[in-house]
Specification:
seven-stranded parallel β-sheet; Rossmann fold; six-stranded mixed β-sheet
Length: about 625
């Protein structure tokens, strides 16, 4: 999605008239994106004047196309500036420019990572060259037209305030690889940037390249489970961006230093604990798996740990199909139940995904506390956590709990804004959709309820109609599933192939739970079953059809929960028997937010409570089918 598009001459005229910032802001509103970010508004007025100076050269044709604030498909990230045209060989080029107002930055010990004053504070962030390069690669990965037409993306960074005296802080040997991939231009480099652009933009493109960038056919988004085997073999399937890259490089460097110190009796050794926060779709699992693959390739001992059996079993099956040895697979992917009697510091790094799902006692009722056990077992322990995804009364994973046991083990804790993942890669990259979920479920009030309807939401009065609409999506690639809350008794447990059904709803809808099938997410014959939170959390689909039971209703102008509607046979969540009604209320809301954010491309909804369905219809301003 391009926010502002114009020719070079049109852009320069908007600068001269002083209207550029207002036009960009108006374009945001026309796209349904409302914000009150004064600093961003000022940056358009300020930084774009410098781009006008760069482009003020007759050798750059006045009719070439440019764009400001291009949102990369399927993400929440935006490219600052694009310029499209042809070079002297008729090659179609798009120059990708990342703009910064920095005057200086600090060198870190982490590749592609710097320290800079941004957002009102000194922060650890990606090097601008890496940022521009990663954005360009993601566009290539997502846009089929860019690949097929062999459109060349030429990334660079322009730090128009960056003082020449500080050049060595941003352009040095440590960052050489990033700068080679995407040159960095500073305060005194206006002519160099102009030359860089002119080398690729000699004439207007014969086709509208920016239209191909903005409206080109998108490649299917890769699900982590489908890319896993390639990643284990050392291939780069995902490009980490911004805070994902910072978290990744932070952990890699910590493991190197901590293991080195552990082997040096003179220098001494201290455990490290890293807390990485992130909501649904922010890439927690991608960063975790990429860390695992890199660390084992460098000879470090590392485990990927999760309490949820479903993702582990899916990973096991994918790797088994690609002929990895069973012993090798089991050595990498562990249950959180596995460490109750593990020796201290047995692993260089333990990577804990879905850390909010950790519990006190392991499945075999041994041990004292899984957070304590995991920190004990690793020299570096990394916790990927989203406290809004705690969904049972046994879930103890919280930042407070992690800090407590880190202190017990005298471990150094690393957390903060630079380890908070915010880039949205699910739900079509729509922060607005996640804001809508928070508002609908009354988890928290959020300001922006507008979102790009390229993310497909459909509301159904009939569960049977929803299933058939979803089946059409699933027939494409077996990546769509129905999921429901805890409201339905598991009557088919002891006779899964019999005639009894667990979920019986209006319009002749009948279905069975999938609890006995932990490969529900990928099994070719599981579509007609209905998944639950335990077989879907930690995984993702193209489309999800959510059945909202009677535990979530709309009454007297409020969305309410009802723990008495939870199934008696539900022995896992503890919600029905929970004495703490506020906790039960929050767990029900968390469960539905987690379910409704599983889909990469769309979410279909059916509610047993018709007033709730009507309420959602009014909130979204879409019709019920």
């Amino acid at each position: 999605m391009i926010i502002y598009e114009n020719t070079k001459n049109g852009f320069i005229n908007d600068i001269r008239s002083g209207s550029i910032a207002g036009k960009v802001n108006t374009a945001f509103e026309q796209h349904g994106i409302h914000h009150n970010n004064e600093s961003e508004y000022n940056s358009w007025a300020y930084s774009l004047m410098y781009m006008r100076n760069v482009l003020d050269d007759e050798a750059i044709p006045g009719d070439v196309s440019l764009a400001i604030e291009y949102q990369i498909p399927l993400t929440s990230k935006r490219v600052d500036f694009l310029l499209a045209g042809k070079d002297e060989t008729e090659t179609e080029n798009v120059v990708v420019i990342e703009l910064k107002q920095w005057t200086d930055s600090g060198v870190t010990t982490r590749p592609d990572v710097v320290e800079a004053f941004t957002g009102g504070a000194n922060r650890i962030v990606c090097h601008p060259s890496y940022q521009a390069y990663s954005y360009a690669r993601i566009i290539e990965n997502f846009n089929e037209d860019v690949y097929k037409r062999n459109i060349k993306l030429r990334p660079c960074a322009y730090l128009h305030n960056y003082r020449e005296a500080n050049r060595a802080h941003i352009d040095n040997d440590f960052y050489r690889e990033a700068v080679l991939c995407a040159p960095v231009f500073l305060e005194k480099d206006t002519e160099k940037l102009r030359t860089f652009i002119k080398s690729y933009i000699k004439e207007k493109d014969g086709i509208d390249l920016l239209m191909k960038i903005d409206h080109g056919k998108l490649k299917p988004a890769k699900a982590l489970q489908d890319a896993l085997t390639s990643m284990i073999r050392g291939n780069q399937e995902f490009y980490l961006i911004d805070e994902q890259k910072v978290a990744y490089e932070t952990v890699r460097r910590l493991v190197e230093l901590t293991v080195k110190n552990a082997n040096n009796p003179v220098k001494g050794f201290r455990k490290s604990v890293v807390i990485v926060s992130g909501g649904p779709g922010t890439g927690k699992s991608v960063v975790a798996i990429q860390l695992l693959c890199n660390l084992i390739s460098k000879g470090f001992s590392a485990n990927y740990v999760t309490k949820n059996a479903a993702p582990r079993n899916v990973y096991f099956e994918k790797l088994r199909q690609d002929h990895f040895r069973w012993g090798f697979i089991k050595s990498l992917f562990k249950s959180s139940d596995s460490f109750w009697n593990a020796p201290s510091n047995v692993m260089d790094c333990i990577i804990v995904d879905e850390a909010h799902r950790l519990k006190k006692k392991s499945a075999i009722f041994h041990g004292e506390n899984q957070v304590k056990e995991l920190i004990n077992s690793g020299k570096v322990t990394v916790f990927f956590i989203d406290e809004d995804q705690r969904i049972t009364t046994k879930d103890i994973g919280s930042k407070e709990e992690i800090r407590k046991w880190a202190a017990y083990h005298n471990a150094q804790v690393f957390e903060g804004t630079d380890l908070n993942l915010i880039s949205q890669f699910r739900c079509n990259g729509s922060d607005g959709y996640l804001n809508f979920l928070d508002n609908l479920l009354e988890i928290r009030e959020t300001a922006n309820l507008d979102f790009d309807y390229d993310y497909e939401i459909r509301l159904f009065s009939s569960p049977a109609k929803m299933r058939e609409a979803l089946r059409e999506k699933n027939d494409i690639n077996n990546k769509s599933r129905m999921i429901a809350g805890y409201c339905y008794e598991w009557v088919s447990e002891n006779n899964p192939t019999g005639d009894e059904y667990d979920i019986i709803l209006e319009d002749g809808f009948r279905a069975k739970w999938n609890f006995s099938n932990t490969l529900f997410a990928i099994a070719p014959d599981s579509f007609d079953q209905v998944g639950c939170i335990h077989t879907t959390q930690g995984l993702e689909f193209d489309y999800c059809g959510i059945i909202i039971g009677k535990d979530l209703r709309y009454e007297n102008g409020k969305v309410i929960t009802d723990q008495s509607q939870e199934a008696l046979s539900d022995n896992s969540s503890g919600i029905r028997s929970c004495k703490d009604t506020s906790l039960a209320d929050r767990l029900i809301r968390n469960t539905y937010k987690t379910l409704m954010s599983r889909g990469q491309k769309g979410c279909y909804l059916y509610c047993e409570d018709k007033p709730l369905l009507d309420h959602i219809s009014k909130m979204l301003k879409i019709e019920i089918e």
